[in-house]
User: Fold D,D-heptose 1,7-bisphosphate phosphatase from Candidatus Aquitaenariimonas noxiae.
Amino acid sequence: MKIIFLDRDGVINKDLNSYVTDWDKFQFLEGSLEALKRLFDAGYEIVIASNQAGVSRGDYTVEELNYINENMLRQIEKTAGKRPSVYYCMHTDEDNCACRKPKLGLFKQAEGKFGKIDYKNTYFIGDQERDMETAKNLGARSIFVLSGKNDLESVKSWSFKPDYIKNSFLDAVNFILGYKSRVIVVMPAYNAATTLSKTYNDVPKEYVDEIILVDDASQDDTVEVAKKLNLKVLKHSKNKGYGGNQKTCYTEALKEGADIVVLLHPDYQYDPRIIPDLIKPIKEGNADVVFASRMLKKPEVRKMPLYKYISNKTLTSMENLILGTKYSEFHTGYRAYSRKALKSVSFTLNSNNFVFDNEIIVQLHNKGFQIKEIPVETRYGKDYSSVSFMKSLQYGLSILCVLFKYLLHKYRIKQSEQFR
Assistant:
């Protein structure tokens, strides 16, 4: 029998830093219902083992806990087609019971239903050190998920370290099942007819499920070239700008079921051959977003015009200072996003211009998403898109406005829907 053990709060539903005391406060985490469905579809039994000491403390009653549980199970059954088995311990540590995790009483109860369990071939998925200790006591493999109240920094001080770390319950399930992420490359195009074929030819097709090109009212044969390459093509009737183009790109990719979205300019400035390296941290659950940074390459490889290099480094230093980050650059146009990251930020509220790239970074930072960087080689020349000095100056001023707006939001001087 194949079986998976889970904690509840912080894995399936949002951890409120206290017990969920009524159904109105219960919020399924993004992707958790899909994760349960994938496990059931793969033939797994699912056991939820959760400490609920709030009952003994008088925060809520057994009847209220049962009501929450029944509503949760109904919703899971509606989505996943089946109900998991649920076992709760309602004691406190002081009660010294046999069922409160990391003790194994709840799992003995599960054995009463499922018989002898081969724990060494099972996983326990949780968001606390207590869960990792429980897995060790069982002899099971442990997966720590970052969707609860603990982060990577917390893990460093734990005595019981997890065997694996994943961003979410869904990422953990994808790892267990060896699930192949659906990767969609999006190309925001404007007058890219001369470079599109070269860009497309260098894309490693075995790592990509679909390529979508969004044409921003080009004046050349970009659309015709894209159709000859059998790309999915969307065409704006009028120019919406670089940011407006990206909004269409991401909206369409999410609609097409992308798990990972790669932003690749069709001007052949960035090297498409590194897509496997770009998506790898997301597939492995080690990042939500990955940037291909020009600044991680040596100057002779980077080949960036001097004025661009100086402005890039100056603005990046300023943004790092304000956001408390240490990125090598904020201005790359070559990125990979997880589905969760894109769905969690209001990118449609961003600018239709080039500053969109910086706005979405601030949004992702504000939400606490993990961003990694890898190096990339770039090309500069007459066929590659480039912004003039004056437009670069306007871009820099726009970034300062974004940072100022973010600070007003952060310190609650003037709240912004864009960064909620």
Q: What stands out?
A: The chain has two domains: 3-177, 183-419. The chain has a mean pLDDT of 93. The first helix runs from residue 32 to 41. The radius of gyration is 24 Å.
